[in-house]
Amino acid sequence: MQRIFTGVAVVTAAVVLTACGSDGGDKAASGDKTTPDAKKTIDAGAHGGEVKRKVTLEVRGKGALAQGISYQLGSSGSETGSLPWKKTETLTLTSAQQKVGVLVSIVPGSVAGPDGTLKPGACIITVDGKDVADNRGGKSDKGCTYKVR
């Protein structure tokens, strides 16, 4: 569980660093050689190129969780408790994030199956009202991940 959570954190950090990269130079001080068309593109991303996405992470089922839920949705976290479980946030994406995507994920935790064995909970990710990822009703041992654009 810790390895999965660490892997999600590393991938998320890589996406953020890639989207926010800079050459470190100060073009204003050295004479701005950006073409007017490039300036329009830069300005559009900084002033109005943003888009909002309503993202919902959900684990379906009934009863208590045998293991907690871990998630990445704007920030990372984990929760314990009972099912059904749902978390919704509105993400504001810059134009760069719209191109590369922002990773959201959920590790659904374990629930007791009909035969008493532990199995993954049924997870689903919804973006702007559309189901975009699931783990086939808990039949897959993987969690749910999606890049929001």
Automatic annotation (TrEMBL):
Top-level lineage group: Bacteria
Biased composition regions of type Basic and acidic residues, renumbered to the chain: 24-42
First and last residue of the signal peptide: none
Family annotation (PROSITE patterns): PROKAR_LIPOPROTEIN (PS51257)
InterPro entries given in the database record: MmpS_C, PDZ_sf
Region annotation Disordered: where it falls in the sequence: 24-46
Full protein name: PDZ domain-containing protein
